[in-house]
Amino acid sequence: MGVPELIAVSRKYGSTPGWVLGGGGNTSFKTAEDLYIKASGFSLATLDADGVVRMSREKLAEIWRAEYPSDPGAREKRALADLMAARQPGEEPKRPSVETLMHDAFPQAYVVHTHPTLVNGLTCALRGEQTCAEILPEAVWIPIVNPGYYLSRIIEEKLASFAEQNGTPAEIVIMQNHGLVVASDTLAGIDVLSERVVTAIKSATGAAPDTSPVAPDPAGETIRTLLEKRYASVTFGANSEMLRRIQSEQTFAEVAGSFSPDHIVYAGHAPLYVEFASDSSAGAIAVGLDAAVDEYTQKHGSSPKVIAVSGVGVFGCGATEKTARLALDLFQDAVEVAFYAASFGGVSFMPEEEVEFIRGWEVEAFRTQVSTQ
Ligand SMILES: [Zn+2]
Fold first, then answer.
1. What is the pLDDT of residue 206?
2. Which of 40, 181, 330, 358 could make an SS bond with 95 (beta carbons 3.0 to 4.6 A apart)?
């Protein structure tokens, strides 16, 4: 039991398709004195000892006891400073995950937090909470709140009341518009819990989306060339479910908002939808595309990271190949989340004020910056 096992379980879930994307998710192992947590900016799939920060649980306990300002910005700033100060000597160059405190709230030795597509089909659905209570009655549902210190606090309260009511600690936490946490004293236990969650949701959704690739539309190359004049890197994707979703403004509405913090961080808070008449000339496409991107940029204060062109496919756009790829991957994830959410009453996006909180959050800005290096 220890850090090598923590690294093994991190790599396992980090590299299994459908569990996390980019630098998303985090894992921890704890003893009475120390909490070993994934550092911010590292990916679970390739985690090694350099990406693990050793935290003092005594200092984390002080954060639990501290009183913070009620203003969200001031509160998170103070809590983050205290979190940095809770690193053990010698750990200073590393930055602990912003979800560290949440890990500390679980009594179990191992905590694995991921953002699985299938689970988010449930957490981003209108009937998500109700369905969760039906198919996973032993899970604790966490409503959407500001991430960071405040989220940890809410989880700690919910875990305490679960333990009081049931006489045993909760092992599964499902976070609205965010993801999954499983906690166990053994790695075998982590696998059993993860499997239980996946099986329950799969049997409630039935079919999986058809993501088989489709033959590229010739307009795709024209559009990519145009976009490459604006962005350093452009990635293109097209598959059956994606094309079905970007067929019209109406079908696109189900992926037009923000599902989770990861979607905002990597794919932007709002993808751009564009459509052209099928007989459009290359010149007409160029004019229309330019106008759409300019209008978007003016409205949102930043250029789109995801551009969906009806009947053609989706372009992930960024300053590097990695950011362009991640934008496309997160949009594909959103398409699948929307597919699964249809089984649970349809999609439910993050509310505007939560989206703005994430967009302005210094911690997420750090993660975006690190993920693009
Ligand atoms: Zn998370």
1. 83
2. 40
Helix %, strand %, coil % of the chain (to 5): 50, 15, 35
Q: Measured in angstroms, how far is the CA atom of residue 179 from the centroid of ligand 1?
A: 6
- Decide: 19 and 116 in contact? Cβ < 8 Å: yes
Tell me how far the alpha carbon of residue 160 lies from the centroid of ligand 1, in angstroms.
Answer: 20
In the chain, where the domains are located: 3-203, 219-371
Evaluate whether 3-203 and 219-371 have a shared fold.
yes
C-alpha 23 to ligand 1 mean position (Å): 10
Compute the distance between CA of residue 24 and CA of residue 371 in angstroms, rounded to an integer: 10
Question: 72: CA distance to ligand 1 center in Å?
Answer: 19
Under 8 Å between Cβ of 104 and 60: yes
Q: 318 CA distance to ligand 1 centroid (A)?
A: 23
How many residues does the structure list for the chain? 373
CA of 135 to the centre of ligand 1 (A): 22
Task: Tokens 């079919």: give the residue.
Answer: 207
Check if the beta carbon of residue 32 is closer than 8 Å to that of residue 57.
yes
**Residues 22 and 368 sit within 8 Å (Cβ to Cβ):** no
Closest C-alpha among 202, 172, 173, 203 to residue 189: 172
Q: Parallel, antiparallel, or unpaired for β 110-114 and 52-56?
A: unpaired
> Taking Cα atoms as reference points, which of 156, 115, 97 lies closest to residue 17?
115
Q: What is 219-371's CATH number, 1.10.3720.10, 3.40.109.10, 3.40.225.10, 3.40.190.10?
A: 3.40.225.10
Span 321-369, pLDDT tens digits: 999 999 999 999 999 999 999 999 999 999 999 998 888 876 656 555 5
| Of the candidates 140, 137, 145, the residue with the CA atom closest to the CA atom of residue 177 | 145
- Tokens linked to 145: 């709140």
ipTM (interface pTM): 0.99
Fold of 3-203: L-fuculose-1-phosphate Aldolase (3.40.225)
Please give the distance, rounded to the nearest whole angstrom, from the Cα atom of residue 274 to the centre of ligand 1. 31
155: CA distance to ligand 1 center in Å? Answer: 13
